Amino acid sequence: MAATRPNRLFRNLTAKIAAIPMILTALVVFVGGTVWTVTYSFTSSKLLPKTKFVGLDQYERLWNTPRWLVSIENLLIYGICMMVLSLVIGFVLAALLDQKIRYENTFRTILLYPFALSFIVTGLVWQWLLNPDFGIQSVIQRLGWQSFDFDPLYNADIVIYGVLIAGLWQGSGLVMCLMLAGLRGIDQEIWKASRVDGIPAWKTYIFIVIPMMRPVFITTLVIIASGIVRLYDLIVAQTGGGPGIASDVPAKYVYDYMFQGQNLGQGFAASTMMLLAVLVIVVPWAYLEFGGKKRV
Description:
Elements (H helix, E strand, L loop, with lengths): L12 H28 L16 H7 L2 H32 L6 H13 L2 H11 L6 H7 L16 H26 L3 H9 L4 H12 L1 H16 L3 H6 L11 H11 L3 H28 L5
């Protein structure tokens, strides 16, 4: 009888054969490219890669460069604000839509529509809206509030918050949809029981519903964080990194050094640091999802 059992190696053989191109692509392009990038980050490569190793010189130079430090600071400010505000805004919008309001599909479509736009389009739209000559500031001043001043993209101290506005406008709709899906998965008996017990709705959300939506929150945070680390298009479209280097971010730093500064070694070192940032996000998420608890 044991002889008639199909060998496990040959089970689902068609699916395994179909997955070979994907596996090879992952190994060659992603794993191979990552190893190649990390390796050459320890070299003095300029216009072309070369195997002259210089140890940690590229990393020392990286962390002694004011532009890199500014880009890290901007990424932290944008990242923290984006995570907190997009989660709050997305959850509040989802909670409102979960009340079975009229024209829910229309509101959901309108709120999700910005996510369908590219970051380049979003950046250009908000560049126009935040332009002091014909944007929001100009419109409000024409209405009579001559003292109104709102030009964040032209103020080096707050330019990153102008970029944040555009990011929230585009990303909050996706968070809203994810949260709404999580809320729709909550058993309605929980709401009925809370109403019978006289528990206020806000307490039900905070102490019952949100803890039950933990997997949704974790997944949403990972999606948001991955978008934050690779922030580039929005910066290029809105500010180009300016004024000066006030709105620079790591991804733009990498691009400029690799393709404009002709300094591959420095670009590879910055890319490796971005890879470490991604690992800091992915590894805890993987642990929480797959290794935090022993499954029975």
